[in-house]
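Hi U.,

Before I forget, here's the chain from the pilot set. I'm dumping it here mostly so it's searchable later in email.
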Amino acid sequence: MLISRFVTLFLIPLGFLFSYLHFLPISLVDSIAGMALGYGSLFLASKLFYWMTGKEGIGQGDLELLAFIGSFLGLAGCWITLFLGAIIGSIIGVTYITISGKSKELQIPFGPFLALGAILYVLFQEKLILLLFKI
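Structure:
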């Protein structure tokens, strides 16, 4: 349930640098926007969940992980990663709770699902963009 801050926060500037040097297929602006979308979307979701329930729902490591992913994959990659991670995490979480009979209060880490979403995006980028954005 812990994601190393030293890794995620260190790699975000590398995403900016690699995009600026054209080592990544995204622009520097897209890299910065992806980082902002990644962190900002989960930050807002976290604050909204806390406001509604009075409980922490998303850890700081998840915010920083999605910011890191966004800095390397850009806006579209960040959005699709979040979408895939949420869908896969929901399916696995609900299935696990149903089969095991555990409480709905069970904490399930979100980071592995974000990482899986990012891997799927990198491997199937064109097909996912066509499927989700209908371009």
